[in-house]
Amino acid sequence: MKVDPSQRSRPIGVFDSGLGGLTVAAELAELLPGEDIVYLGDSARVPYGIKSLETVRRFAREDAKFLLGMDPKLLVVACNTASAAAIDTLRDLSGVSVVDVIAPGSAEAITCGEGPVGAVATEATIRSGAYQATLESLAPGREVHLAACPLLVPIVEEGRAEDDPIVTHVLCDYLRDMLRVRPTSLILGCTHYPLLSRAIGKLMGPDTTLISSGAAAARDVARVLEACDAKNPQDAPGQLDCYTTDNPERFAKLGERFGRRKLTSVHYVGTDELELNFS
Amino acid sequence: MKVDPSQRSRPIGVFDSGLGGLTVAAELAELLPGEDIVYLGDSARVPYGIKSLETVRRFAREDAKFLLGMDPKLLVVACNTASAAAIDTLRDLSGVSVVDVIAPGSAEAITCGEGPVGAVATEATIRSGAYQATLESLAPGREVHLAACPLLVPIVEEGRAEDDPIVTHVLCDYLRDMLRVRPTSLILGCTHYPLLSRAIGKLMGPDTTLISSGAAAARDVARVLEACDAKNPQDAPGQLDCYTTDNPERFAKLGERFGRRKLTSVHYVGTDELELNFS
Q: Which residues contact A45 (CB under 8 A, 6 or more apart)?
């Protein structure tokens, strides 16, 4: 379908429980440098991955509703747990295309070969069954192996180096079964995990292709915009405007590592405002 | 001061960012078996220890306000981060005595001897400077050593055994400097940490006394109630009524390990209700 040209200059909305989704924003900026991005990181209520799916669903609805108020042309759910818990709800409430991080990563993972597919993710994402269901629908009968890795998000947030012995010990612990399986592809099913991809890749060895769910989602966004003729035609580099529910200075400081650039435009929005906005 | 006898049967209000404060509720139930306790665990927004102090202060005010609606005779801030960020604000808004977890633990720690005092806590608690300031005011000039241990809360929440090699590696990493100092006492400045006290004690050795900030706070509550003649005179064991901002079944299931008993009365309260309640 063709898109009304006035829509092309509307921003892409991206939200995550905190900083992790900035890795997706960085991929988007690389693939689609002309696009403006409005990012919401719910740092006051982070992490989502240890909470019940109904609470995550409520938070995700509030986050999406806030971004929809910015009139985006497309919404990216840059959080695997929110994608797992709420993608159908979010599609129902949004009047625009919604790209999640579970379907694109799963689609890339099954094209790497015929062998088993692995996925590592937060406890809530694994508990939701979303990866199992998505992979089963895309490649019925394909062997699937999942591992919940609750400590990886706090390890990344703590800023430990990838060659830190603690990182190695924790990865060995979580990936013990995965190493026996030797999957053809391993989905990094949390937007924090690409920051450990060198360590995970070293452990898994060269026969397992690592799939970043966020990078796969960014490629999906590019395909959708291309198909709809909705890419921003501007030559100037797009803006990245961030909103956070916690302290903006702290978000800007810690977010650089995830977003791979200086974050110059970070604003505060209270969770009370998100909740009022929704009710 | 004497207390109006009708006040004696009012409950003790206890709040925490999540499950950790149930360790304080368990200590209270042991010391003061006749007391009714109303507990609020803000599991939807847990943890507080990685967030900015202003956000923690806002959450703590909302939590306290909710409990004050239950007409408690005393309020316990069973979260070190909330105590560090908000104790003055909470005392201002409460019309009842407020017991925190930082002052009682610090007071016990300095009585263990003349040597250095150590404290381990979350990143936000350490960043607040509350332990440093409290210890300095109680024992001016005493040598104080602090260590932020961001991974310990998620490790306890994950349910790892104390002799798990990951637990040992992480503790060795955080306590490296503390081991050189060999403090006379080490404050476990987070209500999750008593669940690792065997492992921490083994590492620190017999010359360091471990101080549980929660157990110290419970002893402080007993002293306050005794001094005010406000103890509940009932012979029957007190009730423990819990409220959580996340799923109540999940809270009841995971909370048993912290509360050291079955949690039979757990109710849901939304964070939207806490926020409306406050505004």
A: A17, A59, A245, A271, B44, B45, B271
